[in-house]
């Protein structure tokens, strides 16, 4: 791939116009949108409107002017991105909190089953939350097994299979239909963490018959740091399962101020407390960008961007740990290297922002909405110069930062 080839792909890129909708700093090639998505240009004004008009002028009246129903309204905007019905998704809380709700509810739904199964090396919060969730249900336990042992681990005691669809380090993607069917064949519920897949790859929760799903909105969806997460509960489970966080926003009549908890019907019962309206507004603004985007175009461009960096890695003899088959991965590419930390820092010093995942992964996120093929080609060139010159050996690149 030459620079001219990359430019030719940009010239016919159907998503090219979206780049101008993001405020990216000059001189930066941002390859970390899989961790914190870029700022949409429309977001600061939307935040200012919430702060000055909705909060400042309208004050508490704003709850009746679009705030109170925001979790469901915005959930409905995420629904088409994950193959869900509009009434099957809410936003709020964090991915960790939604995981807790889904796991405890899943465990309690079938008293004859006691085990949550997940994958060793899953994103830590999934495992940590599962560890905590099983302590809340008598007899429950967590079984964490290697990917190759997952199928054999499913049995008649499995209550929930919890998998992260796209792996945060390697980019490996589970076949959603096949694993959901396996969980169901074993009589278990299927809970997907879509944090690294939503906005990155096409997802069909309804088509694959998934039961439960959670995910971050601050990555590919660009909702902003700590943006509210989403929870999907398939229609058939919404009233059959019970959220263990029975807060007043999930009550059938919150403003009746009753002592006893009476869950609302449908997805509303999965809400807990008051929505954080500033970050909720930032998320809604970011989602409005996704309204007309064909997920297939995103997938096609992601695959092209991947190929550019994979070719650069091959030329350098790097160990690419991400699958070559686009159907088997998400939208980031990872290289294993004993000096991945220093390489990451050397890249950042040259304006190419990726990240390091302990102990030896250089991870580069490919966000089709705001990266051009030329950007990614240039990032490959810069990586090549850093490696061939050995400039990453500069001692300043080995100082460990708190957040990598
Ligand atoms: C797979 C996965 N789940 C969950 C999270 C985060 O959860 P939370 O937003 O609760 O910090 C991340 C990233 O931080 C993630 O990669
Ligand atoms: N949520 C993050 C944060 O609060 C600080 C730094 C990074 C993150 C991340 O999102 C990490 C991300 N889930 C990952 O895959 O590594």
């Amino acid at each position: 791939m030459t620079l001219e080839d990359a430019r030719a792909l940009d010239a016919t890129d159907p998503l090219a116009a979206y780049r101008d909708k993001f405020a990216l700093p000059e001189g930066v090639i941002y390859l970390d949108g899989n961790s914190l998505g870029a700022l949409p240009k429309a977001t600061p004004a939307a935040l200012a409107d919430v702060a000055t008009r909705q909060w400042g002028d309208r004050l508490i009246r704003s709850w009746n002017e679009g705030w109170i129903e925001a979790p469901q309204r915005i959930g409905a905007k995420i629904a088409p991105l994950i193959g869900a019905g509009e009434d099957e998704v809410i936003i709020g809380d964090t991915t960790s909190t939604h995981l807790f709700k889904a796991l405890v509810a899943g465990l309690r739904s079938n008293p004859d089953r006691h085990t949550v199964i997940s994958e060793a090396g899953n994103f830590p919060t999934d495992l940590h939350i599962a560890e905590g969730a099983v302590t809340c249900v008598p007899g429950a336990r967590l079984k964490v097994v290697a990917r190759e042992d997952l199928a054999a681990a499913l049995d008649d005691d499995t209550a929930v299979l919890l998998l992260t669809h796209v792996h945060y380090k390697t980019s490996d993607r589970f076949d959603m239909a096949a694993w959901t069917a396996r969980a169901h064949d074993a009589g278990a519920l299927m809970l997907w963490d879509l944090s690294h897949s939503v906005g990155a790859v096409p997802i069909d929760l309804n088509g694959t018959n998934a039961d439960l799903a959670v995910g971050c909105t601050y990555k590919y969806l660009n909702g902003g740091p700590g943006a509210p997460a989403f929870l999907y509960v398939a229609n058939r489970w919404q009233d059959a399962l019970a959220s263990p966080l029975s807060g007043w926003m999930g009550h059938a009549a919150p403003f009746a101020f009753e002592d006893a908890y009476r869950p609302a019907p449908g997805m509303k019962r999965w809400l807990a407390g008051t929505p954080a309206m500033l970050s909720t507004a930032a998320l809604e603004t970011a989602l409005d960008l996704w309204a007309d985007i064909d997920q297939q175009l995103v997938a096609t461009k992601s695959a092209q961007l991947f190929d550019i960096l994979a070719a650069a890695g091959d030329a350098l003899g790097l160990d690419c740990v991400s699958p070559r088959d686009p159907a088997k991965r998400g939208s980031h590419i990872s290289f294993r290297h004993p000096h991945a930390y220093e390489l990451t820092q050397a890249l950042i010093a040259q304006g190419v922002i990726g990240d390091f995942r302990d102990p030896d992964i250089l991870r580069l996120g490919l966000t089709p909405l705001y990266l051009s093929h030329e950007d990614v080609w240039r990032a490959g060139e810069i990586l090549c110069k850093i490696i061939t010159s050995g400039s990453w050996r500069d001692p300043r690149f080995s100082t460990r930062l708190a957040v990598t």
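Residues 231 and 237 are 13 Å apart (CA to CA). Residues 45-290 form a domain with the Aspartate Aminotransferase; domain 2 fold (CATH 3.40.640.10).
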